[in-house]
Amino acid sequence: MKRARKAMGGRLYTAERRVQEANSQSDPTSCLTAEQRVFTTSKDREITLECFRVGTLREREPHIIEWMFTLVERNMKEHYEACSWGWNGKAKYNEMTEPDAWYLIAKDYANSSLAGFCHFRFVVDYGVEVVYCYELQVEALYRSEQIGRRVMAALEALSLQWKMKKVVLTVLRLNQRAINFYMDCGYTYDETSPAREEPEPHYIFSKPTFG
Ligand SMILES: CC(C)(COP(=O)(O)OP(=O)(O)OC[C@H]1O[C@@H](n2cnc3c(N)ncnc32)[C@H](O)[C@@H]1OP(=O)(O)O)[C@@H](O)C(=O)NCCC(=O)NCCS
Questions:
Q1: Which helix (H) or strand (E) is 149 found in, with range?
Q2: What pLDDT sits at residue 76?
């Protein structure tokens, strides 16, 4: 019993240490290959992926934070309003600007247009170290060009690099397009997900990465 408790403590210690190490990097995406950072879409657009801590965006590129928030509002407000969670813009903005937030920004290289973004965090979730994908949003103009898939692949590479057990995300049950997309990317119901017969408006999906 004592030994089991000690082992549990050791596991949690490892999980926290790994999360701390990933979060202490100035750029946790330095492990990505050139092909993962810059790629050509199915419509022949060159897209670059750049990583920022939210604090850096606030200081240097506050317009990107405003764009991200309006994109979430445009893409998601209706979905939130259609389920029991409702839409709370202030709470969403606060969540997006919490200090632990990291961002991957997808830009169209030709004209510097902002094409999409991912808000992710390294966290201990139910005692396990994970990359938590808080948000994945692509501008309507840039959808179905595999940008979302490339971003998820980059997250999975980061998860592996920093020895996180899995990439985890929350998806609304009524967002069938996103459910199809994540399943296409190899994600499935996480053990912590509310079951189909439960009344919650969301599922938790995940994909194992390390160990
Ligand atoms: C979900 C989302 C991030 C996917 O990004 P994307 O860059 O369009 O994704 P990809 O091009 O890599 O893959 C698209 C795949 O998603 C699925 N998909 C896309 N549109 C779909 C649709 N209308 N119906 C069913 N599946 C669809 C398909 O598997 C599709 O592949 P295909 O376009 O080749 O048929 C993007 O559609 C989006 O931003 N949606 C609005 C915001 C959102 O719902 N975010 C997820 C919150 S959890």
A1: helix 147-161
A2: 98
Q: Is the pLDDT score of 2 beyond 70?
A: no
Report how far ligand 1's centroid is from the alpha carbon of 177 (Å): 6
Beta bridge partners of 168: 132, 206
d(CA 40, CA 49): 12
Q: How would you class 171 by CB atoms within 10 Å of its CB: exposed for 0-12, middle for 13-18, buried for 19 or more?
A: buried
pLDDT band (50, 70, 90) for residue 9: confident
| CATH assignment, 27-170 | 3.40.630.30
Q: Confirm or reject: Cβ of 75 under 6 Å from ligand 1.
A: yes
Looking at the whole model, is its pTM more than 0.90? Answer: yes
To which residue do tokens 């990097």 refer? 25
Ligand 1 center–CA 207 separation, angstroms = 17
42-69 confidence digits (pLDDT tens): 999 999 999 999 999 999 999 999 999 9
Q: Is 146 in the pocket of ligand 1 (CB under 6 A)?
A: yes
